[in-house]
Amino acid sequence: MYVPRHFRAEELVWPEFHAEHQHRGQTLFMAFDARALVTLDRLRERFGPLVVNDWLWGGEFRLSGLRPLRSGVGAALSQHVFGRAFDCKFRQVAAPEVRAELLAGKLRGPGQVFEHVARIEDFPGMGWFHFDTGNHDAARDGILVVTPHGVQ
After folding, report:
1. 80: which of 1, 67, 92, 132 fits an S-S bond (Cβ 3.0–4.6 Å)?
2. How far apart are CA 120 and CA 134, in angstroms?
3. Is the whole model's pTM more than 0.90, yes or no?
4. What is the dihedral of CA 89, 98, 148, 152, to 10 degrees?
């Protein structure tokens, strides 16, 4: 089981999930794809501090990590409900810069820092960076970019 170096479980789950399962301690991380957690740590190390959920500190973000199946947020089969997606809000870099760097390809591919990123989203005005480790062969086909018009 991979336990992130830079994140607490509370930052990655919604409040009710945490309240119900906090007694499980570190095993809460079993709810996530290890590749997504590794990528989250690597994003933090590469781009600096970032926020997923901040509800614990009175913030507004509750569903930027693991989401309930019927949350009403995102796609019906969002990778968030499977523990394979995060919406990251960076403090020192803008989300479009992170997207551009990953799409440039220097840090992704087998054995690279962001090898596990399968898809990202790119919508106008998007101030966060969405990535997931869902079922897409990015090593062969490149990162899938989801836009308002479909997939690029």
Report:
1. 67
2. 10
3. yes
4. -150
Architecture (CATH level 2) of domain 9-151? 2-Layer Sandwich (3.30)
- Going by C-beta distance under 8 Å and a sequence separation of 6 or more, which residues neighbour residue 9? 18, 22, 26, 28, 29
Termini Cα distance of the chain: 33
Output the pLDDT for position 26: 94
Q: Where are the alpha helices (DSSP H) in the chain?
A: 15-21, 34-47, 95-103, 138-141
Burial of 143 (0-12, 13-18, 19+ CB in 10 A): buried
